[in-house]
Give the backbone structure.
Amino acid sequence: MLRRDLLKGAATAAIAIAAGLPATVALAQQQTVKVGFIGALTGPQAASGRQMANAIRLYQQLNGDTVAGKKIEVIFRDDTGVADQTRRIAQELIVNEKVAFLAGFSLTPLALAVAPVITQAKTPAIIMTAGTSVITERSPYFARVSFTLPQQTMPMAEWAAKNGIKTVVTLVSDYGPGLDSEKAFFEKFTELGGKVVAQLKAPLANPDFAPFLQRAADAKPDAIFLFVPGPTAGPLMRQVVDRGLTKGGIKIIGPGDITEDEQLVSMDDSVVGTITSHFYSVLHDSPLNKKFVAEYKKANNGARPNFIGVGGWDGMHAIYEALKKTNGDTNGDKLMAALKGLEWESPRGKMSIDANTRDVVQDVYIRRVERKDGELYNVEFDVVRQVKDPYHK
Ligand code: PHB
C-alpha cells in the first residue's frame, strides 16, 4: 500500500471513531490479534521450528481462527537458532506489527534473549519448547507450556534408583537444559543411594559424541544418562548404536528428548529397551491424542508430531483461552492474569500453567522403546502425576 493510502485510511478511521461511526479500516485493525511466532525454521534446530509451526497451523485449522470476535493472525519468523536474531525479530514484531503475543523459542538462549524486550513492552511470550528451569524467572511476561528439564529428569532418576541401577555416567549438551538435567539427575539419584561416576558434557554446536560415549562406556556404569535437544536425538542415538552401547549390558536412559517420536521412526531395533521419562508420546492413549496425531500426520505427509509439536499446539490453545477470558482485550497484564492458573486437556494429558510460577505442570511418564505394529514407539508404563518444576521457589 502507498503511504498516502495508509494515511488516508488512518485518517478515515480516526474520523469514524471520533464520530462513533463504523469504519472498515479501524474495525479490521481492531478485530485482528497478531501472534508473533519466532522459531528456528532453518539451521541445526530446524526440526523444532517446523514441529511448532505445523502444530500451530493445525490448531487453527481445527479450531478456527476467530476468538472473542477477533481474527487471530500468526506471523511466522525464522531466527535460524541465533539469539541476536531472536531479539531483533521480537523487537520488530512488537514495534512494527504490534503483536499481542510472542510464541515459539526453540532453544533456551533464544528465549533468554527476549526477556528484557518483553518485560519492557509488557508483551506476553509463550514458551513452546525451551526447557531450562530459570527462563520463566527472567520476565514476568513469560508463560511456559513445554517442560522443564528438572521436571522431566527427577522421575527418571527415581526410576533408575528403584530399578537396580547403582552407577551412572551422565552425558549432556553443555548449555542450560543439559546442566539442569545433569544437576537434577545427580541430586535425585544420589539422594536415593545411587552413584554418578562421571559427568560429561558435549558442545551443543556440531557435536561429535564418539569420544564422550567412549569415556562413558570405559567407566562401565550400569546406565548412561543422555540429554541432547530433540532435533539432535537422531545423530546422538546413531552414535550410541554404532558404538554398540545398546548391546553391552549398559542401559541407556534419559529424558524423552533422546527418543523423540519423529526421529524414532527411522532408528533401528538396537534402541529397543531405552528407558526415558517424558510428558509426551505419540502413542499416549486418549481420544484427543489419537485425533491430534491422525490430523497432524494427514496435514504433514505422514510425519509424526513430537513433544515440540505438542508444545506448539498447547501454546496456541493457551493463547485462545487467555483471549476468551479477556474477551479479546490484548492488554499484556490482563493476558498474563488470564494465563495464570489456566488448566486444560492436552494431547499429552491434563496440564496447567502454575498461577505463581507461570510454568507448566503436567504428568511425567516412564516409557520404554518398543516395536509395535511395525513401528518404534515410546510405550508409557508408569506415571508421576502433575509434576511441577522442582527448582522454582
Ligand atoms: C532448550 O534449549 O531449552 C531445549 C531445546 C530442545 C529440547 C530440550 C531443551 O528438546
About this structure: Residues 107-108, 129-132, 176-177, 229-230, 257 surround P-hydroxybenzoic acid (CB under 6 Å). Residues 1-12 have pLDDT under 50 and may be disordered. The longest strand covers residues 360-372.
